[in-house]
Write a structure and sequence with these properties.
Largest sheet: 8 strands, parallel
Strand content: 15-25%
Number of strands: 12
Distance between the termini: 46 Å
Structural class: alpha/beta
Strand order of the largest sheet: 5-4-3-10-9-8-7-6
CATH superfamily of the largest domain: Aldolase class I
Number of helices: 12
CATH class of the largest domain: Alpha Beta
CATH topology of the largest domain: TIM Barrel
Order of helices and strands: EEEHEHHHEHEHEHEHEHEHHEEH
Helix content: 25-40%
Radius of gyration: 20 Å
Shape: globular
Number of domains: 2
Length: 347
């Protein structure tokens, strides 16, 4: 795998990514300074997230749309969280330009097809699929169709989820794939890091293995490196005191610098191979995509791409069923925000 001028293979150095996420706290100046700080800290790349609240979910106060999965965001609505956390799209060009000036690779996680199209206009060199989007097979297929390297995070994934995602990439002849071990808990317990999985990823799936890390400290990145990870991603912030949704589990410049040094000097560490999701990962599947009614539908009306979408949360039908239900009629009136299920659809 080649990402701009960085080659990734079993003999290459680890590709260290600083995740900006929501750590700009609504300020472009803060975002730009974070890019510069990531360079000073030794990162190889800076990663953004490209979405709006409306591309991730819908504005609803229904119980399904209130976060209650044991996370630091419990009590907020999905819409409220994403509206406060997103990176404005009009900032992206400046951030890409700043990264280039600093000698950093800049890329992003798109959360719907419009974000992919937008990132294509910026010449993004690689795509990252976030953990909670690994079940959105149509989105993964669309990203992979751009024939650029694709990095998949596995924070809520079962073995079947991983296989479906990899098949989606390979279906469009994209074999430039990296798979990151991740625990979607914020912060994540070190005991659930299970970094021996990185070795298994490489052997089982013939991919570049890596780590998307939400633990506190440098221990897990060091273990990951020793066990063969070639990508390490950590949330990065100028100063946790500025606050924000991701501040509590993000590294500041000093900590990130120390992690980079530790990764480059990594020693042996051991984990275990286990694909069984933890309870925290199961709870976090609420953040995955599923099929919901997004516009009111009257009984007997036809399902189309305007009234049913793959959105967060994950209580409805699997996104892979979207193609199978388009064109079918519903048995009863369905309100916006209703979960889709087969028993609502005429046979």
């Amino acid at each position: 795998m080649k990402i701009e001028n960085f080659y990734l293979n079993k003999d290459s150095k680890v590709f260290i990514v600083a995740e900006l996420s929501a750590n700009h706290n609504g300020s472009l100046d803060t975002a730009l300074e974070t890019v510069r700080a990531a360079k000073r800290a030794g990162a190889n790349a800076i990663k953004l997230q490209t979405y709006t609240a409306d591309t991730l979910t819908i504005k609803s106060e229904k119980d399904d749309f209130i976060i209650k999965s044991g996370s630091i965001w419990d009590g907020k609505s999905y819409y409220e969280l994403y509206e406060s956390a997103y990176t404005p799209w009009e900032w992206h060009q400046a951030l890409y330009d700043c990264a280039k000036e600093e000698g950093l690779i800049c890329f992003s996680s798109p959360f719907d097809t419009t974000a992919v199209d937008f990132l294509e206009t910026l010449g993004t060199p690689v795509y990252k699929v976030a953990s909670f989007e690994i079940t959105d097979i149509p989105l993964i297929e669309y990203i992979a169709s751009k024939q650029k390297p694709i990095i998949l995070s596995t924070g809520i994934a079962s073995l079947e989820d991983i296989e479906l995602a990899l098949d989606a990439c390979r279906k469009v002849d994209n074999n430039d794939i990296a798979l990151l071990k991740c625990t979607s808990s914020y912060p994540a317990p070190i005991a659930e890091a299970n970094m021996i999985m990185a070795q298994d990823f490489a052997e089982r799936f013939d991919v570049i293995p890596g780590l998307s890390d939400h633990t506190i400290g440098s221990t897990v990145p060091v273990v990951a490196t020793v066990l063969g990870a070639k990508i390490i991603e950590k949330h990065f912030i100028l100063d946790r005191s500025i606050g924000g949704p991701d501040a509590s589990f993000s590294m500041n410049e000093k900590e990130f610098t120390e992690m980079v040094k530790a990764v480059r000097e990594a020693e042996l560490a051991i984990g275990k191979v286990d694909y069984t999701p933890t309870q925290k990962q199961i709870d976090s599947r609420n953040f995955s995509r599923s099929l919901y009614v997004v516009e009111d539908i009257k009984a007997g009306e036809t399902i189309n791409e305007e009234n049913v979408r793959s959105i967060r949360p994950g209580h409805g039908m699997h996104p892979k069923e979207l193609k199978n239900i388009i064109g079918k009629k519903v048995k009863q009136d369905l309100e916006k925000g209703s979960r889709m299920s087969w028993d609502l659809i005429e046979s």
